[in-house]
Amino acid sequence: MDFNDTPEEAAFRAEARKFLEANCAPKSGQRQQPESSESDYLKKAKAYQKKKAEAGFAGITWRKEHGGRGLAPIFNVIFGQEESKFDAPSGPFAIGLGMCIPTMIAFASEEQKKRYVGPALKGEEIWCQLFSEPSAGSDVAGLKTRAVRDGDDWVINGQKVWTSGAHYSDYGILLVRTNPDVEKHKGLTMFFLSMKTPGVEVRPIHQMSGGSNFNEVYFTDVRIPDAQRLGEVGQGWQVALVTLMNERLAVGGSPGPDYAEIMELARRTPSPTGKGTLLQDQAFRAALAEWFVSAEGYKLGRFRTMTALSKGQTPGPESSIGKILNANRLQDITNAAIEAEDHFGIISDESLAPMEAVFQQSYMWAPGLRIAGGTDEILKNIIAERVLGLPQDVRVDKGVAYKDLPTGR
Amino acid sequence: MNFDFSDDQKSLKDQARKVLADKSSIKAVRAVLDRKPGAPSYDQDLWKAVAELGWLGIAIPEEYGGVGLGRLELCVLAEELGRAVAPIPFASTVYFATEALLLAGSDAQKQKWLPKIASGEAIGCFALSEGPGAPKPDAITTTFDGSALSGAKIPVADGDIAHFAIVLAKEGAGTSLVIAELDGVKRSEVKTLDPTRGHAKIEFAKTKAERLGKAGEGWDLADAVLDRAAVLLAFEQVGGAQACLDMAVDYAKNRYAFSRQIGSFQAIKHKLADMYVAAEVARSNAYYGAWALSTEAPELPLAAAAARVAATEAYHLASKENIQTHGGMGFTWEVDCHLFYRRAKLLAVQAGGPGVWKEKLVRRLELKNAA
């Protein structure tokens, strides 16, 4: 048992660090600036991605014929570990390169792959994923957006939601209903399209946290050729599973303040008992111990996943536990911090609130984290069914055509 | 990155599981649970078997009659012993007494005791508690005068059958850790929540004893022994939690209510997923503890506290929700759920309760940050 890289991994890590030191600023500890200059940020991100591709750090696990480096998944994790220590603007490409392009590689024609894979890898084109809908979130296979065949074309009408980066994306992969007369999973088909196609309209969502990181995308008589279909008609669900499988290692992370930050706050906040600081308060100390154990459990669990990857094994859905742990811990910690700040806790003005209001801001962000990329409840179902082998819930939609399913409001 | 047990260690684990399934069926656990007054409080056949397999001396150096493997091997055995609710004084003898001797014993003391431990001849115990609440150095009343020990310790796990005890006692103004043979010492069995392990009140009356380490070092040595034991107990707890989860999953697949498997209800699924998450958090923290223990890393005190806090929580959750999943049947004597519920509580308090360990964890985190 050790935490060392193999010689090959160590060499790769050193190479990655050298590249990052030459091309990125180290993490400043300052929170990111508000997105007033999004176009500047995108310019910076595209330039960074181009350098990454040239240096062989984009598509690390992809086959060489697709412009990748053909390495094992562990090297991707190593690059991610190193990159996370820097202020690397890699966010806009995560979904495209993590999910959309792998789906293109699996299902697009040779000619299309030649056209789209390279520019995405070099950061010239950004991709988004158009799956969720207002009435199809956890139950994404229940989606409504309709594609109707018209000669060599398909005509699309409907609405997508929670699409990250749609407003700056060039292309998207799109899951739609092509046959409402069969069971819901069997009537879906996957396409890709340019976000500039006439009839596509992107509107930002105003989140409860105040910001706008996601979009709604409306489709009104959008016409695309059949050549932009990925997989067979009616096989869209199978194609989507390939996309989502690639999401697994991407989710997780622990954004926002963790036990170390609340410990820092507790050092200079008076205890609710009136004696000493919050850090000297027994109830707080017990809670702090629990947060530490949860954060360590996540971090060390990732080490176990890395070990499996390093040995060439494929990690299973057990990595779903990371997001459950991190999102709930974030909500608990931010809540505890605000309550401990007492009257003052309600202040979210960065110039007044302790630690630039990081707890207040993350408190308003935490509910979204428990929902995005699979709700706590869906992730627990995944653990129960795919890890523990428990039976599926009784399904009322089996053997029923999509058009006959109850939909509520 | 190699944060996992080796193939050899994993095959030792498989072997241990087979041996325990064979020698220590739940029947054997129940034989100890339902024993008549005066009958031995442990499974003597299993004790002989684990001695012959070398498990008792697995981390004892060869020069002292042991196998000379490491703590990682001991950790994989601990997980399986926990899974089997093994009714033997393994924890007392190996995690506490052996670790105390290895940590603080003189060469003569090691020569005297370790070979007997490895062969299964000597059962040890660890006597710290004297009354309700977490022990404190200035509240210890058992005294050691340099050669003899006086005072009462209660409860002492396996104190009813042990041949010797490691005891924390007051000596002068401080505390010392001492070792005493229990031949002729007054011991009375104490009724506890987990009768699959015996417990005693031990009353020392001018009992001959020897110091382990130096005078005045007792509390710190006991703390260091507890850190080592905490990691090993965490593996027993992880094994127990996993056993509860496996039982609950199995039952949820086979029990029907409202004409369907109860495991198809989300109320049950989410409960079992919570047990799984807690068990995985505990396992990851226990692995880190194992690494720190086996390498004598300076991270051991913090890692041990994290392993103990996570494992205690995971076993508590798994053992109570396993009963809940089993419904009314889970509340019967015949169904095995309560064996784990009992053992979970014993392991939760045996080396100090979770409140004490959470406090240790935060204190150690503060020290680390200050460094």
Distance between the termini of chain B: 26 Å
Strand content of chain B: 5-15%
CATH fold title of the largest domain in chain B: Butyryl-CoA Dehydrogenase, subunit A, domain 3
| CATH superfamily caption of the largest domain in chain B | Butyryl-CoA Dehydrogenase, subunit A, domain 3
Spatial order of the strands in the main sheet of chain A? Answer: 1-4-5-8
Helix content of chain B: 40-55%
Q: Quickly count the helices of chain A.
A: 11
Shape of chain A: globular
Oligomeric description of these chains: heterodimer
| CATH architectural designation of the largest domain in chain A | Up-down Bundle
Largest sheet of chain A: 4 strands, mixed
Q: Nearest-angstrom radius of gyration of chain B?
A: 20 Å
CATH class of the largest domain in chain B: Mainly Alpha
Extended strand count of chain A = 8
The CATH class of the largest domain in chain A is identified as Mainly Alpha
Account of the protein in words:
The complex is a heterodimer of chains A (409) and B (371). By secondary structure, chain A is an alpha+beta fold. Chain A has 11 helices and 8 strands. Chain A has 3 domains: 12-126, Acyl-CoA dehydrogenase/oxidase, N-terminal domain (Butyryl-Coa Dehydrogenase, subunit A, domain 1), CATH 1.10.540.10; 128-237, Butyryl-CoA Dehydrogenase, subunit A, domain 2; 259-387, Butyryl-CoA Dehydrogenase, subunit A, domain 3, CATH 1.20.140. In chain A, strands 1-4-5-8 form a 4-stranded mixed β-sheet. A 4-stranded antiparallel β-sheet of chain A has the order 2-3-7-6, with no helix packed on it. The longest helix of chain A is centred in the C-terminal third of the chain and has 29 residues, at 282-310. By secondary structure, chain B is of the alpha+beta class. Chain B folds into 3 domains: 7-119, Butyryl-Coa Dehydrogenase, subunit A, domain 1, CATH 1.10.540; 124-219, Butyryl-CoA Dehydrogenase, subunit A, domain 2 (Beta Barrel), CATH 2.40.110.10; 222-370, Butyryl-CoA Dehydrogenase, subunit A, domain 3 (Up-down Bundle). Chain B contains 11 helices and 9 strands. Chain B has helices at residues 7-23, 26-33, 44-52, 71-83, 90-104, 107-119, 218-254, 266-295, 300-330, 337-350, 354-370, and strands spanning 124-127, 143-144, 148-157, 164-171, 174-181, 186-189, 199-212, 256-257, 260-261. In chain B, the strands form 2 sheets. In chain B, strands 1, 2, 3, 4, 5, 6 and 7 form a 7-stranded mixed β-sheet that branches. In chain B, helix 9 packs antiparallel against helix 10 (337-350) and helix 9 (300-330) runs antiparallel to helix 11 (354-370). The interface between A and B is large, with 48 and 49 residues.
